[in-house]
């Protein structure tokens, strides 16, 4: 359930901050990246899983960003608030103050045998780069790593760091892209 997912995400942020303190990281954490699908309702279809960016999500995770003075990438099945009914596999970037800095929407959702993209999500349309106080951040989600266009667009826009929340165990492909 959503409440348990929010509690787990908050606990992961606390653990990351504790580990940074334990290892003597001076200045604390600049960025915490939660796993793909971190925030969603239970269900099979995207319409059932979708969560709005509302007071509860921002309240809990924005508080963690403020508490740990870190930027936070929150992957979620997002119910868009523009009245379109559109649902995205998205990563919401929260500032150190716990405010929404921007949203990246997965460009290449995985399509099932029936031609449905991840239970009914709509693909994104852009590869934004976010100006953070530690550098220029790009975000790709999971299968996006397999397409050159995303890496190229982020590089052209000046991304210095790419966050890659993923449900995939791949490591070689994103490392190779980062080196390129």
Task: Give me the secondary-structure topology.
Elements: H1 2-22, E1 31-33, H2 46-49, H3 55-68, E2 71-79, E3 87-94, E4 100-105, E5 129-132, E6 135-139, H4 148-156, E7 161-163, H5 172-179
Parallel strand pairs: 1-2, 6-7
Antiparallel strand pairs: 2-3, 3-4, 5-6
Helix pairs in contact: 1-3
Task: Briefly characterize the structure.
The chain is α/β, with parallel strands linked by helices and 180 residues long.
H/E topology pattern: HEHHEEEEEHEH
> Which word captures the global form?
globular
Strand order of the largest sheet: 1-2-3-4
Number of E-state strands: 7
The number of helical elements comes to: 5
Mean pLDDT: 93
The unreliable regions are none
Helical content stands at 25-40%
Biggest sheet descriptor? 4 strands, mixed
Overall structural class, as computed from helix and strand content, comes to alpha/beta
Determine the N-to-C terminus distance. 40 Å
Specify Rg, calculated over alpha carbons.
Answer: 16 Å
Strand content: 15-25%
What does this structure look like?
There is one protein chain. By secondary structure, the protein is α/β, with parallel strands linked by helices. Helices cover 31% and strands 21% of the residues. The chain has five helices and seven strands. A four-stranded mixed beta sheet has the order 1-2-3-4. The chain has a three-stranded mixed beta sheet with strand order 5-6-7, with no helix packed on it. Helix 4 links the parallel strand 6 and strand 7. Helix 1 runs parallel beside helix 3. The chain is globular. The model has no long low-confidence stretch (mean pLDDT 93).
């Amino acid at each position: 359930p959503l409440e348990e997912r929010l509690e787990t995400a908050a606990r992961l942020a606390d653990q990351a901050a504790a580990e940074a303190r334990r290892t003597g990281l001076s200045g604390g954490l600049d960025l915490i990246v939660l796993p793909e699908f971190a925030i969603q309702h239970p269900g099979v279809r995207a319409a059932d899983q979708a969560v709005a960016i509302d007071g509860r999500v921002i309240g809990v995770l924005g508080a963690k960003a403020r508490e740990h003075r870190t930027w936070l990438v929150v992957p979620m099945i997002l119910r868009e608030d523009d009245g379109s009914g559109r649902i995205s596999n998205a990563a919401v970037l929260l500032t150190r103050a716990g405010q929404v800095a921007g949203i990246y929407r997965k460009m290449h959702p995985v399509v099932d045998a029936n031609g449905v993209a991840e239970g009914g999500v709509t693909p994104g349309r852009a590869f934004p780069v976010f100006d953070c106080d530690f550098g220029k951040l790009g975000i790709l989600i999971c299968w996006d790593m397999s397409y050159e266009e995303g890496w190229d667009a982020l590089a052209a826009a000046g991304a210095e760091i790419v966050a890659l929340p993923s449900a995939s165990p791949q490591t070689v492909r994103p490392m190779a892209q980062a080196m390129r």
